[in-house]
């Protein structure tokens, strides 16, 4: 598989921009006025300029186009090669001086006069090998620098400045004075680099000016947010941040592993991981990188969950997955002032933050697994392997929050915030248990020889028990919060959280549950008031139920003489209090005469409510196929699609049950 040029350029761009993040990280962690002792105002000014120039260089590396960025790194590599040439020259001078001193000491002991001429130098094989090695090294470095900088004239020979000590040694220059030649080569090279920078300073200013003008024009044309988002995506900033934080995290673990402090090893590997994570989120850049890394890890876990449940055929990579966990981590870190804490405090707080992120991740995994689990049971999927995988995953997701709750309660005292966090884990476990119970009921109905007519009621009871348990947990959190506010320290933020929790998790749950109960109670009362069909009526009807398309061995008769399964009609009445076939109002007493509704006028009313033109409704009626609604009754009409105010949750439940 060949990589495209765009992929290669994007990868190179990410790798070349990561050092800018390390430079910004060091810039945030460094305070030059505290790190270096200043003895004069001039030194302080120079140090301050260098400090902010480092930030400007880091920003330039992060924002330069790839072409200019590659050029910058070429110059940087050339500067590094010249530094290597300096080190080679320094080593050569040091070795020559050391051997000369040893020879002088030996000559003084034996009263021998040494010959320092060229002939004596060439007779010594060690000296010849050293000379050849250092000359070859200097020529090679100069050739590479000339090639990278595309120097083709006589200037490339000036890059051999650090070969001067070798030449001076061959020329008979005193060994004790070789360091002067080395110092001259160093000063000459520095001047050469400064001349190169000065010569290209105009180009540097033009590039910066062009970039600033393009940025200003983009901001004025498209706005700040679209430009920032485009830069975030095209520069692959999340990938840069994730790579930066991963390298920093591994380096921090390496430091702890090779440290002589054995106290941290006695605390266990978990403390080492938390301490390393605490050290790697001490600045705004590293904190943002941590949140992005959590996003990528969460996205990978969720994608693997979907891949595990559905396989490669149904797998689709969703890049938006995992951002909930990353934003949660960022918001809580800012709320708790994570950056202002000491490393040890950050490590302990990191355990709470990771617990919250893990709870959110488990909830997201459950939201992926729940519809797949219920679809397997409702559709009577024959693949046992798929059932085992889904059930096994749900079992793990059910037990993991309980273990996490037990683990964290051993290390921290229970307060209101911890209670809110723990309650979310318990709610997740309760929801997963409820899904497993519903799955078991559907599977029991599948293995029965005949359909279970009470299945809908039992499933509703199971879901109702789950909702009641969720409501009890929410009420317990409210009671605990009120207790903490009255007995403990009152906090305005805690009061806001308590009010929000009361509204969303208590009042709305209670209101939704009560509304669902009333709908079912009214529907059951209407169905029970309808007469059951006799055997002669069933034989005369001799058709399937118009709702579920199944044979009817028992049925109930509506006032308009239509026959339906009692369970199917009750599900219909959860949504609409009219006959599914002719729109006759079933809310009235069955003993009272009831006039059938005009389907066209009913459709017109619903169309007006939905802001639909009447002619569109009439066209829809002409095109709608009436063959699926066939019945032995002569007054059968079409069911208007606009006449039902659908409820998504009820229809989803109806689809699963039917």
Describe this structure in words.
This is RING finger protein 145. Pfam families: TRC8_N, zf-RING_2. InterPro entries: HRD1_E3_ubiq-ligases, TRC8_N_dom, Znf_RING, Znf_RING-CH, Znf_RING/FYVE/PHD. It is a multi-pass membrane protein. The chain has a two-stranded antiparallel ribbon with strand order 1-2. Strand 1 and strand 2 form a beta hairpin. The C terminus is likely disordered. It is mostly helical and 658 residues long.
Show the helix and strand layout.
Elements: H1 5-29, H2 32-35, H3 41-63, H4 66-110, H5 118-123, H6 125-148, H7 164-170, H8 178-199, H9 201-222, H10 224-234, H11 237-257, H12 263-266, H13 269-279, H14 284-314, H15 323-335, H16 343-378, H17 384-409, H18 416-447, H19 455-487, H20 492-529, H21 535-541, E1 556-557, E2 563-564, H22 566-575, H23 599-609, H24 614-623, H25 648-657
Antiparallel strand pairs: 1-2
């Amino acid at each position: 598989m060949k990589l495209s040029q765009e992929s290669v350029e994007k990868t190179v761009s990410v790798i070349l921009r990561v050092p800018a993040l390390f430079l910004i990280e060091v810039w945030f962690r460094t305070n030059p006025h505290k790190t270096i002792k200043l003895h004069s105002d001039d030194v302080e000014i120079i140090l301050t300029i260098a400090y902010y120039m480092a930030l400007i260089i880091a920003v330039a590396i992060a924002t330069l186009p790839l072409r200019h960025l590659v050029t910058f790194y070429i110059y940087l590599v050339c500067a590094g090669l010249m530094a290597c040439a300096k080190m080679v020259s320094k080593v050569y001078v040091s070795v020559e001086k050391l051997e000369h001193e040893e020879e002088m000491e030996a000559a003084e002991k034996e009263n021998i006069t040494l010959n320092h001429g060229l002939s004596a130098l060439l007779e010594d094989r060690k000296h010849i090998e050293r000379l050849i090695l250092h000359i070859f090294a200097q020529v090679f470095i100069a050739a590479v620098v000339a090639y990278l900088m595309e120097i083709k004239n006589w200037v490339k020979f000036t890059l051999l400045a650090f070969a001067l000590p070798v030449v001076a040694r061959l020329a008979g220059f005193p060994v004790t004075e070789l360091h002067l030649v080395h110092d001259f080569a160093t000063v000459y090279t520095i001047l050469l680099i400064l001349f190169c920078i000065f010569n290209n300073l105009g180009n540097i200013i033009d590039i910066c000016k062009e970039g600033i003008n393009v940025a200003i024009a983009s901001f004025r044309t498209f706005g700040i947010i679209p430009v920032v988002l485009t830069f975030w995506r095209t520069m692959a900033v999340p990938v840069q941040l994730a790579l930066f934080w991963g390298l920093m995290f591994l380096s921090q673990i390496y430091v702890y592993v090779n440290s002589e402090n054995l106290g941290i090893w006695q605390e266990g590997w978990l403390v080492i991981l938390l301490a390393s994570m605490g050290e790697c989120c001490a600045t705004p850049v590293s904190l943002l990188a941590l949140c992005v890394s959590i996003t990528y890890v969460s996205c990978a876990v969720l994608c693997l969950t979907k891949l595990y449940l559905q396989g490669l055929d149904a797998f689709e990579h969703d890049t938006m997955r995992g951002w909930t966990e990353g934003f949660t981590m960022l918001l809580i870190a800012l709320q708790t002032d994570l950056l202002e804490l000491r490393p040890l405090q950050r490590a302990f707080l990191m355990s709470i933050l990771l617990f919250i992120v893990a709870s959110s991740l488990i909830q997201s995994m459950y939201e992926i697994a729940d519809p797949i689990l219920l679809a397997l049971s409702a559709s009577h999927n024959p693949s046992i392997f798929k059932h085992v995988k889904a059930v096994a995953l749900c079992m793990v997701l059910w037990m993991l929050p309980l273990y996490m709750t037990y683990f964290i309660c051993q290390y921290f005292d229970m307060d209101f915030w911890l209670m809110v966090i723990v309650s979310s884990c318990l709610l997740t476990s309760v929801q997963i248990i409820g899904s497993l119970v519903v799955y078991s009921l559907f599977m029991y109905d599948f293995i029965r020889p005949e359909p279970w007519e009470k299945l809908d009621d039992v499933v509703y009871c199971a879901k109702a028990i789950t909702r009641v348990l969720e409501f009890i947990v929410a009420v317990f959190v409210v009671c605990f919060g009120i207790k903490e506010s009255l007995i403990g320290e009152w906090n305005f933020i805690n009061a806001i959280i308590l009010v929000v929790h009361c509204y969303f998790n208590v009042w709305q749950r209670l209101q939704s549950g009560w509304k669902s109960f009333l709908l079912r109670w009214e529907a059951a009362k209407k169905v029970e008031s309808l007469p059951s069909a006799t055997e002669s009526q069933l034989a005369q009807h001799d058709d399937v139920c118009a709702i579920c398309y199944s044979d009817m061995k028992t049925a109930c008769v509506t006032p308009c003489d239509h026959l339906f399964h009692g369970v199917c009609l009750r599900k219909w009445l959860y949504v609409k209090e009219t006959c599914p076939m002719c729109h006759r109002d079933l809310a009235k007493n069955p003993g009272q005469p009831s006039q059938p509704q005009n389907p066209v006028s009913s459709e017109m009313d619903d169309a007006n409510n939905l802001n639909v033109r009447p002619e569109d409704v009439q066209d829809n009626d002409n095109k709608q196929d009436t063959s699926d609604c066939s019945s032995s009754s002569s007054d059968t009409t079409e069911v208007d699609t606009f006449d039902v105010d659908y409820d998504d949750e009820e229809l989803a439940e109806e689809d699963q049950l039917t």
